[in-house]
Give the backbone structure.
Amino acid sequence: MIPDEGVGEEQAVYEYSRFLAAYASDPNDVKCVAHLHCPTLSAAVAADMSASATNQSLDSWDQAPGASLIEARVCQALAALVYPDAATPDAIATTGATESNFVAILLAREGARRAGMKMRVVCGENAHHSIARAAWLAGVEPPVMIRSTAGKLDVEHAEHVLKSEQPGEQTLMVVTAGTTDTGSIDPLAPIADLSRKYGFDIHVDAAYGGPLILCDAYAHNLRNIDRSVTVAMDFHKFGWQPISCGVLVVHNREYLQPLEVTAEYLNSKDDVGRGFPDMLGRSIRTSRRPDLFKLATTLRATGRLGFERMIAACFAAAELLADAINADSNFVLWFGQRDLTTVLFRLPDMGRTPEISDNIVAEVRRRLLENGSAVLGRARTQDNDGQMRLWFKITVLNPKLNLQDIEAILGAIVRESSSVSDGLAV
């Protein structure tokens, strides 16, 4: 991989790009539906290339004058949508929700520390694994877990846990607007009511569902999100951006103050005093790409209405898929409410034990991946009897997915499942 003599730029780019494309898991293919891994828009890809070619770095204004202005305006626009009634909302660019969740917990921990209190993180069993990791990285106790039912945080159990807060503790409640497994949105309004009753702050991990805030027809799914203090949103999921493209939105610009730091060579006090924007306090990173430039370009190209039409097409395709599964005796559709565009289903037991049926789901998924027929996801969650089962997962992020594609995917599952023996082990 590190030769003494190179083959030249053209040959190297040709060889490696061809290899990368030939062996890519291509999210632009309608049968690549496993993860929150979206197809990309050409405008976003072109903008990303411009960002790479100009090689702007947003750790100081003099390294990215235009890019820093665009980032600031995108952040202000998104923050105003999330917190329409706040006086000074803001947002910062992140690599995605893992970073956003970490920074949100860091900021909450700092607030608790300054108040002379110990921070406690509370989240649902359905929360993303990055929440527990963020708590560990931030040096706070592991999150207190709340039961989840049908993919959503259990409000009654949440109240029981929240009442147990000890003197000297300050709770940050993490709720999810679009879980990885089921696409479920936690009940934001009841949790916000508990927040008012017991005096804790809320962080919303809206990595998946957050972009709905741009769409008049779907923003109601996020009603009461503005009763939080911070919100994580990713546009490299339900926003068709090349990875990475995330933001952490805050209800008040002053909430970001703990991130402020001075380095003479990047944001000297006299430069800032003369009006040079201070970029260093807008991230936990130093060198960083202008990742919101491609989002700004995309929104300039599509407008909110064009963006909403693509969201609507994904919702329609998810509905079409769920109807096709429900009408097919070869499958069992997951019983829970579908809030976004994730569809779970499995094979019927047909006299087999649940363990054997689950093993078949796992093996069929692997075989489809190995033979290139489809890239399907998997999720382990409750069935309507409360039993944990393994499900096929299709995450619809491609607006072009149609009935013919759906029938091809389901047909491939049926054909592969018929050849899998009952005695397989996972």
Notes: The chain has a mean pLDDT of 96. The CA atoms of residues 331 and 348 lie 6 Å apart. The first strand starts at residue 90 and ends at 94. The chain has twelve helices and 13 strands.
